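For consistency, the fold was encoded as tokens, which produced the following:
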Amino acid sequence: MALTLLSVLVSYAVQGVFDSRLHSFGWRVALIYVPNVLTMTACVLAAARVHRAPHRDSLPRHLTATLAVPVFALVISLVDGWGALDAEVGSMMVAAVLLGGTLALTLDRVLESRR
């Protein structure tokens, strides 16, 4: 919840301060999409670290426990903003969930193997 709120606040701050730079795709990636991926990674990693045995050993249960909230938030965002979203925004939202989730689950496996 706190990370999502922080992500929204950063997005609003970026849009107000860097409006002139948001016309460039590279700046949009650096200022909006990379923080979204980092936020998604932190959220999924937190959920993965909290999810413990015996359910952690089951891949379907572990994926459901760690990815349910980010995927639900993505679906809500896509449905809610369907009329205002363009292809770039929608695809980058999906990419943030996929990349952040994959990165977090990989980090979780690395951290778990070190135990």
